[in-house]
Amino acid sequence: MSTYWAQKKVRLPAYPRGCHVITRHLVQQVEEIREYEVGLANLFIMHTSASLTINENASPDVPLDMEDALNRIVPEGKMYRHLDEGLDDMPAHVKSSLMGCSLTVPISAGKLSLGTWQGIYLNEHRDYGGARTVVVTLQGQKRNDGRKYGV
Asked: What is the pLDDT of residues 98-133, one digit of tens each?
């Protein structure tokens, strides 16, 4: 069995400030996942004021509560030195460091092996963050028959 690698940059549209489930968007953009029998997907956001995390994808209240909690933990204000990009910028950097810029998710039978209620979140920490880019790196073993799952 050979180990195969693939890498793709996924451009996400601009999202408003808050936590957003982006699992479906990522899977649609990285169809190569369906070729893997077993492997890992590493997701890396190329920005310092947004982050990635995994959390509940069923209740629409969870992303709202996550944003509220992050704002209580890291409030905006003039207590920071780095203010030249706006009052939301330095708190965005802190939130990004707390939440993280990368995730590793197992791949099984052509799908991300997330739990029933788990989804991948983009956490947009700026008021006007703009489009974001996520690098998705796949590593693993492809199907022996060369086909894709789900086709």
From this structure: 999 999 999 999 999 999 999 999 999 999 999 999
* Mean pLDDT score of the chain: 96
HEC per residue, 19-30: EEECHHHHHHHC
Identify whether the C-beta of residue 129 lies closer than 8 Å to the C-beta of residue 14.
Answer: yes
Structure tokens at 84: 């030249």
Q: Show the tokens assigned to 15.
A: 């999202």
Q: First-to-last CA distance in the chain? A: 23
**DSSP per residue, 49-116:** SEEEEEEE-S-THHHHHHHHHHHHHS--STTSS--TT-TTHHHHHHHHHHH-SEEEEEEETTEE---T
The continuous run of DSSP H or E covering 135 comes out as strand 132-142
Q: Please, what is the Cα angle at 135 between 129 and 137, to 5 degrees?
A: 160
Inter-residue contact 121 to 14 (CB < 8 Å): no
Query: In Å, how far from its chain's centre is CA 37?
Result: 22
